[in-house]
Structures are given as C-alpha cells and as structure tokens.
Input
Amino acid sequence: MQETHFLSTSNPKPFSSNLIPLPNPNPNPKSQFQSSSSSHHDPSFHSPKTPHFPSLSTKTKTKTPSPIKPQIPPPPSDFHDKALYLDSIGLDLFSLLHHHPPILSASLADLKSTVHFLSSMGFSTLELRRLVGMCPEILASRVSDIIPIFTFLLREARVNGSDLKRVINRRPRLLASSVKHRLRPTLYFLQSIGIADVNKHTSLLSCSVEDKLQPRVDYLEKIGFSRRDALAMFRRFPQLFCYSIEQNFEPKFNYFVVEMGRELKELKEFPHYFSFSLENRIRPRHQRCVDKGVCFPLPILLKTSEAKFRERLEVCCNSSIPLRNSPLWCTKSISDDLDNEKI
Output
C-alpha cells in the first residue's frame, strides 16, 4: 500500500529567505529531511530543498594584505619625561620626531644611556646638540650599537684615538651606520682601488658602495676615461666621491669640454677641478682669460687667490714673450705665432 502524506492545514505562507525552522516533533536527533536514498522513504516523495544562499563567513578566497599596525605611542607620562629630558640638554623632541619618527619608540632609559655614553667619550653638550641635529638617528641607537662603531674606527680604519672626536664631529652619520652592512664594505672598496690612508677620508665610510661610490667611477668611464685613469683620479682626490653626478659632474664637464675646449688629460692630472664653483670661480676666470687671450693651466686658473690671479693675468698680458719652460708660457696666440715663425 502506498504511504499517504498529509500536509499541514495551516494557511501556507509565501516562500521567503527568512525561514524560521519549526520544532521537530520527532525525538530522533536526525534531521527531519533526510536523503532520498534512505530506505524508509518513498522515492516519489521529494523533500523541499533548502535554497542555497551565499555564505556569510568572514573567510574569503582572495587574500587581502594585512593592515599596517599603527605605531603605538608611548604613555603620555613617558613622552612628557622624554621631552623634559631632551629639553634639559637643549634638544627639541618635536623637531627630532619630524626628522626621525622612530625616536618616539625609544625609551627614556635608552636615550639617557646613549647621551651618557657619548658624554663619557668626551663630547660636550654643545657637540651632542650638533651631532643629533645633523643626524637624529643617533638618539634612536643603543649603546650596544654605537660601541662597535668606535671599535671599528680605531682598529680597522686606523683612526687615532686623539682624532676620534674630530672624525665623528665631521661626519656624525658614522654613528648611525652599520659596521657589517655599511662601514666595513666601504672600507674594503676604498682599499681595493688603492686608497691606503682611509683614516684621512673617514667621511666616505658612511657612503654606500652600490648607490654612491661605484656610480661615480662608472660615470668617469662613461665620459671617456679608462677605468685605470678613473681610479687614479679618485686616488689623487678621494673627495671626488662626495660630488653629485647631476649637479656637479655633468654641468662642469660640459663646460670644460664645450666652452673651455680642454682635453681629458688635464682633468686626470687635476680632478680638483670639480671642487670649484662653476658660477663663482670656473666661468668668471675662464671668461677673463678669453678676454685677455690667455690660457692658464687648471691649477693656476682655479687654485690661486683672486689677487694673485689678477697679478698673473696682468704680468702675462703686459710683459714680453716668456720662454717655453716658464710658468707664464700660457697663451695660445703666442704659441701659434712662434710656430708660424719657425715655418
């Protein structure tokens, strides 16, 4: 006999997604609606299927980047104490935070220990203000990070103990540079190109080999110098590493070649040319020489004082023709005239 199913006599409600489950009269904990494959159900009867709705789970298939955790500021009392302490040695905490925000996370104990250590190394309060003003990162450094830097300068860079303060005052960023990742690799690079007395050029130790030193060597090779000549120029004048390619090398080299019409060998012998101001020294003096019809060697053109330069210029223009081995032998017109006379 076919089993008869009776539906509820209550008024049917329209189907809605907000279904409220009815209590199960069957004490059996199994679900009221079971699979049609169960043996005690009639195959012709199909239980109403629950509609499928999108999952509201917070888990999504696409990975979203984790939000950046905001830096937790120190308690107000700690911030106030740090501000008062730094003010007592002439430093403004707000100005330091503007240039180096990580100082905010440094504890007051670390700040005091760093200042105390530098004071024990002989730095006065005025010198400390200058060091921190030029390199605020120093205050965020711990004593355990600063001690290896002093050890490196004394033992590996061969800086004399009496010169240590002068070296730091000249280049405060040394105290914020990693020995392993910055100071030691730069030392090895400078020694590898033949700069033996690195202790006389310690300001270069805080420079990156990849970002600053090597690109300047590459630039000199690009404009026509051999690698051997380029390295010779840096050995002769290591401070050449400190000059900007875009703001120094390029405009001065273009003026040297186009306006002055000089040869590369003069730059090789006198790389100090790049240390002089183009607008205040190189261009004005070259123009005066052009007006007078003279051509001084680069050292005489640029290194002499203004008074001596005027004196040389007047002597060269008003005196008789000098001998070829005289330092006053400097005019192209005279040289051309003598060559014509020989012919």
